[in-house]
């Protein structure tokens, strides 16, 4: 894994966006199209804002997203479909396609539906974050490192749910869904390149555990250390607990 540390969140986000755009352009040049995974969350605001302004032939790009809450309507402020439509797809109207997860009624069936689409689209670049409890996508500890299914139904632990509440997506903890559809660990690792943008001091313990411990299902993001082309971009607060930044 390559690690990059930037003085500010804005510089980190701009670098992550440039790296993503470059890989998309490379894929388009090589085979005429590109496939992209995007994360949704507070940590990705600045990166997406920078990405949509970069020169990419979006008409050749097909997008997927990492996860969606089970049972949540697309109009809810916390819906990742809503987030990605407003912050990404609406800003690049020439986009070839974006395959959203609809986990409102039958999450298991939706896993199969969108998983079949994903199997036909080898991913060139996955843009991900790391949760405060080390979660990757919505793979909370203990994460399943073995399943080969592209998407799975997962349980959200208390730490993950408290993070969503603290970020302002929900009014109370009881309002935060307890389940979600998440891209699986192995599917994320199948991406040609992984770009993880992780800002803010509140992520520092998870960053430390990801980089300085063993690869462990209790720290799902630690699996990123096994990927041949993974790039972890941090701002200084996120890197503040590393022994040797």
**CATH structural architecture:** 3-Layer(aba) Sandwich
Query: What's the total helix number?
Result: 7
N-to-C SSE series?
Answer: EHEHEEHEHEEHEHEHE
What is the overall shape?
A: globular
Order of strands across the biggest sheet? 1-10-9-6-2-3-5
> Which fold does the CATH topology refer to?
Rossmann fold
What Rg do the Cα atoms give? 17 Å
Largest sheet: 7 strands, parallel
Strand proportion? 15-25%
Q: Give the mean pLDDT.
A: 95
Blueprint (SSEs and pairs):
Layout (H helix, E strand, L loop, with lengths): L1 E5 L2 H23 L2 E5 L6 H7 L9 E5 L1 E3 L10 H8 L9 E3 L7 H13 L5 E4 L22 E5 L2 H9 L12 E5 L1 H5 L3 E6 L5 H9 L17 E6 L10
Written account of the structure:
The strands form 2 sheets. The chain has a 7-stranded parallel sheet with strand order 1-10-9-6-2-3-5, with helices on both faces. It has a 3-stranded antiparallel sheet with strand order 4-8-7. The protein contains 7 helices and 10 strands. Helix 1 packs across helix 2. With 245 residues, the chain is of the alpha/beta class. The chain has one domain (2-235): Rossmann fold. Strand 2, helix 2 (45-51) and strand 3 (61-65) form a beta-alpha-beta unit.
Key attributes of the depicted protein:
single chain, 245 residues, alpha/beta, Rossmann fold, 7-stranded parallel β-sheet, 3-stranded antiparallel β-sheet, 7 helices, 30% helix
Task: Describe the structure concisely for a colleague.
The chain is of the alpha/beta class. Helices cover 30% and strands 19% of the residues.
């Amino acid at each position: 894994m390559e690690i990059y540390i930037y003085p500010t969140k804005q510089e980190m986000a701009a670098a992550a966006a440039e790296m993503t755009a470059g890989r998309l352009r490379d894929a388009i040049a090589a085979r005429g199209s590109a496939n992209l995974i995007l994360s949704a969350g507070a940590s990705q605001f600045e990166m997406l804002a920078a990405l949509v302004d970069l020169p990419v032939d979006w008409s050749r790009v097909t997008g997927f997203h990492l996860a969606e809450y089970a049972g949540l309507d697309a109009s809810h402020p916390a819906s990742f479909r809503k987030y990605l439509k407003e912050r990404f797809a609406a800003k690049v109207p020439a986009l070839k396609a974006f395959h959203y997860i609809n986990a409102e009624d039958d999450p298991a069936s939706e896993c199969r539906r969108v998983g079949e689409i994903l199997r036909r689209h080898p991913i060139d670049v996955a843009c991900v974050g790391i949760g405060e409890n080390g979660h990757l996508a919505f793979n909370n500890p203990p994460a399943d490192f073995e399943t080969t299914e592209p998407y799975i139904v997962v349980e959200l632990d208390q730490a993950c749910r408290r993070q969503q509440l603290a970020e302002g997506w929900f009014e109370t903890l009881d309002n935060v869904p307890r389940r979600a559809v998440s891209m699986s660990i192995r599917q994320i690792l199948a991406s040609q390149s992984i770009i993880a943008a992780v800002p803010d001091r509140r992520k520092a313990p998870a960053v430390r555990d990801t980089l300085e411990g063993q690869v462990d299902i209790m720290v799902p993001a630690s699996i990123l250390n096994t990927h041949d082309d993974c790039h972890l971009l941090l701002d200084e607060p996120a890197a503040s607990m590393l022994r040797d930044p």
